Amino acid sequence: MSQKLPSVIEKTQEDLKKDAKIRELWMKNICDHDKHAKFKIKETYDFIIVGAGTAGCVLARELIHGIPNINILVLEAGGPNVHANGIISLPCTWFKAFRLYDCDWGYVTQEQKMKSHVNPTKEVTVKKGIPYPRGKVWGGCSSLNAMVYMRGQAKQYNDMAAQGPEYKIWDWDHCLEAFKALENNSRENPNEKFKQLHGFNGLHHVQDPHNGAYDIMSDLIDAAKNLGIPYNDDFNGERQNGVGRFQFTNEKGKRCSLADGFLRDALKKVEFHPGSEPNGFGKVVAVDVRSYAHVLEIIWDEENKKENIAIGVRYFCNGNVREAFIAPKGEVIICSGAINSPQILMLSGVGPKKNLEENNIKVRKELPVGRNLLDHPGCCFIAKSDPNTIHHWSSGCEIGIIHKANVEGKIPCKEEFFDENPDLQTIAMPLRPGLVDGLNVDGILLWSILNVPSSVGYLELDSNNPFDQPRIHLNYFEKSDDLYRMISSLKLSREILKQPPMSTVYNVKEIGINYTNGDDISDEDWEKFVLEKSVTTFHPGGTVKMAPESNGGVVNHRLQVYGTKNLRVVDASIFPYIPSGNTNAPTAMVAWRASRLIFEDYTRKNSL
Ligand SMILES: Cc1cc2nc3c(=O)[nH]c(=O)nc-3n(C[C@H](O)[C@H](O)[C@H](O)COP(=O)(O)OP(=O)(O)OC[C@H]3O[C@@H](n4cnc5c(N)ncnc54)[C@H](O)[C@@H]3O)c2cc1C
């Protein structure tokens, strides 16, 4: 008889006691170590970057190569992205990588109760505890993500730019310049249009699927085409709508995170300038990345309290609380992602007054930090096929079906398939046995994702302990159009699976919706299904919104935090509108554009 192994870590009381004892011994050692720490020099850098994720890696590289004679400290709460067995770099293991104990912040969401949209006399619930993975490793989420390369439509960038004349630096033309500068696309024989819209010399490698596609997935494209959905061979081309294959942020079939592409290149620059610092130790012109360094808060200049001048950060590393400072013309740049950047601001006294005061934090500047939490909810159902139709090398997300959804929850019509501002993305994934807990079948998973959601969530501090999780309120489907658009897309997915050859050759049978039999699913059952099965598709943003302060902004068009000095936020949290695609490339784009703004401001300050 085979023994069933536990799939989760279960520690006994005895184990926990032993762990606590070891922690105690470690603490004692740290105290002894502190007593000898008298001769340490004050750490001073031109730029301190908090977080070596997508944005932090791009920024470190662009600044160190763009501005002469600077030094940069990058503080990263996680460790290097080198995993001995290559689990991070192998595309087919991404589904496991983000569940790794020490590479993920391990966030979960709050329970959500609201009135049913179908039957408003009833209350419905989105359960508490939806896992909300965030990378805690060099490369941040780009080291754990599904590697789909998608910029989203021009519209959201142009909306961002329409917030005032000074926001023009964020219009599509400016963003496209950055996307192209970052990208190194290896498509074979690209056509002229592809050449115009893509970059081929950047450090972020993008490629078509390395291993071709399964027959069943190619046939899925035909099934979608049978229903009138146009084929699209470039979701980052002139139009986003249609059915086609994704491109991936891979190099030679392996993950290319922003740490692989950009941080690695940033680390190549090391120069020593003896005697150029007042302390006589000389200046090392380089990027210094400190791993397992958890930033606790911003250090403010207490002599000029009213001005809120950031002068450094306090962080926890190797059992010690340490401080690092910026040079007189330097900056602290928070790149800690859409959950942690707002948390660091709030812990430092920048945020909503009520939530800060509840947590005994002195308010330095009242701003709506943590509001405007935007995300792409996803809901999937599963169809099983004949055995042995699925193999094991796939990265998972193979096919995209991008369309405008129907706001009444009907199957979209032809016009909606051709609409140039699609709002729904369905990812088709080959389902291998074991990919979804308890399902030992071959098949297809169709994951509908609301690319342009109307509902907006928020996050807030639960305590003033920097190691505590903030409370994440997603507010998924709070607006009824989100629910009906999701239902519309799920109905379309069912229709696609009914088409030959899916139903005929592969014997595909839907096993996702269990409430009623056959096609006749009531709206009430659809709502129940959507609320029960929806999860994040890992794209939070917007919590440190770039907008005029009068319009709920936390940072201005140059990403400087209102009411402070020497402080910027550069990452996915600054999006006022969430990109209508996946968020890795857009976040890298934000960092590239920010590096140019920082360069301009630094040069201006130095010429004064
Ligand atoms: C499982 C998963 C799948 C995804 N799939 C895709 C996809 O296929 N395509 C796509 O385009 N996007 C995808 N995304 C989203 C995309 O990767 C992210 O939007 C993007 O990487 C966000 O970049 P960021 O710089 O804002 O934050 P992050 O990349 O999260 O970087 C933040 C960094 O800051 C560090 N940090 C946080 N707090 C502190 C602190 N207090 N002190 C020090 N360091 C700190 C973190 O450890 C992290 O390294 C996915 C994300 C996940 C999690």
Question: How would you describe what is shown here?
Answer:
The longest helix is centred in the C-terminal third of the chain and has 24 residues, at 584-607. Helix 2 packs parallel to helix 8 (258-266). This protein has a domain at 91-127 and 146-255 and 376-457 and 480-536: Glucose Oxidase, domain 3. Helix content is 27%, strand content 21%. It has 14 helices and 27 strands. It is of the alpha+beta class and 608 residues long. The protein is globular. The strands form 8 sheets. Strands 1, 2, 12, 13, 14, 15, 16 and 27 form an 8-stranded mixed sheet that branches. The site of flavin-adenine dinucleotide has 43 residues, from helix 2, strand 14, helix 9 and helix 14.
